[in-house]
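Help needed: design a sequence for this.
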């Protein structure tokens, strides 16, 4: 007997007990009411039994067959909808970073160029953008636009009670380069120049450079001073560098021994006497002949007998 049979038996016993109690204590109309309740309870038990048997039959028929693969559930850490659609994610605050002048336009380094405000893209839904633009020295204005798969960003700034201003740019790596815009006055934008925006929470000091001529400065540390090219060096710089640089320490040099003291010196062998030099005379000097050398042991003769 399974669980459903036990429950149905309990329901039947309970209903019969209630019917007996109703017959003895209440009129016949209460007997009809309890009979209806018992009938509904038995029907519900039968329905539950039928559903349970159907579920067991379905589970038995769901065994994996040969050659059937089950698709896994998607990962909870999967990428966003924009990334799956191939769209750049541009939500966030974009601050004005500086100007890049056209190649050879060195005169623009000294001219006064306009500055831009903060592009705060608050919401991105697929290719649609919405946010605010905070101009320098002015209030906020609503911003609406779109971004495409080729990294082109186009938006319209709608100031309160004024005409709309547009901007068009391209996203390259972590920099948004504006190609055209009416956010500044006409004529203040040099030909071929383009402003740059970077995503940052902190304020940025704007730069200015000529395209193709920008050379990043070498890193400056406490142990390595900033080097100056020889073509730009002055006599004062050379003298300052000589004073700043310490004298080089020679390597692989054996230290010289200390000078000997009188107590450490030992008496050397007696010097051999030098023969006196001949005094000059009027007669020529006769060369002296050395005696012949004897080989072996000399023989001593007996001269007595």
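Sure. Designed sequence:
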């Amino acid at each position: 007997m399974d669980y459903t049979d036990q429950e149905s038996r309990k329901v039947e016993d309970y209903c019969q007990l209630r019917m007996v109690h109703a017959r003895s204590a209440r009129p016949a109309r209460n007997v009809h009411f309890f009979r209806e309740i018992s009938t509904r309870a038995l029907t519900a038990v039968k329905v539950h039994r039928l559903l349970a048997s159907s579920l067991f039959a379905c589970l038995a028929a769901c065994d994996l067959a040969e050659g059937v693969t089950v698709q896994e559930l998607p990962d909870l850490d999967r990428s966003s909808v924009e990334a799956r659609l191939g769209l750049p994610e541009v939500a966030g605050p974009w601050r004005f970073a500086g100007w890049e002048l056209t190649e050879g336009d060195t005169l623009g380094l000294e001219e006064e160029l306009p500055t831009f405000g903060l592009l705060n893209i608050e919401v991105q839904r697929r290719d649609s953008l919405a946010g605010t633009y905070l101009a320098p020295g002015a209030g906020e204005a609503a911003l609406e636009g779109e971004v495409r798969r080729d990294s082109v960003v186009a938006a319209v700034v709608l100031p309160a009670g004024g005409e709309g201003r547009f901007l068009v740019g391209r996203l390259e790596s972590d920099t948004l380069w504006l190609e055209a815009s009416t956010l500044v006055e006409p004529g203040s934008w040099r030909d071929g120049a383009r402003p740059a925006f970077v995503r940052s929470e902190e304020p940025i000091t704007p730069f200015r450079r000529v395209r193709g001529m920008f050379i990043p400065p070498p890193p400056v540390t406490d142990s390595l001073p900033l080097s100056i090219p020889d073509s730009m060096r002055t006599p004062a710089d050379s003298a300052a560098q000589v004073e700043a640089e310490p004298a080089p320490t020679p390597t692989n040099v054996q230290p010289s021994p200390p000078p000997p003291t009188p107590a450490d010196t030992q008496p050397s062998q007696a010097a051999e006497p030098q023969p006196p030099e001949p005094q000059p005379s009027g007669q020529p000097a006769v060369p002296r002949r050395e005696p012949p050398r004897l080989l072996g042991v000399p023989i001593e003769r007996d001269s007595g007998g």
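The CA atoms of residues 158 and 164 lie 5 Å apart.
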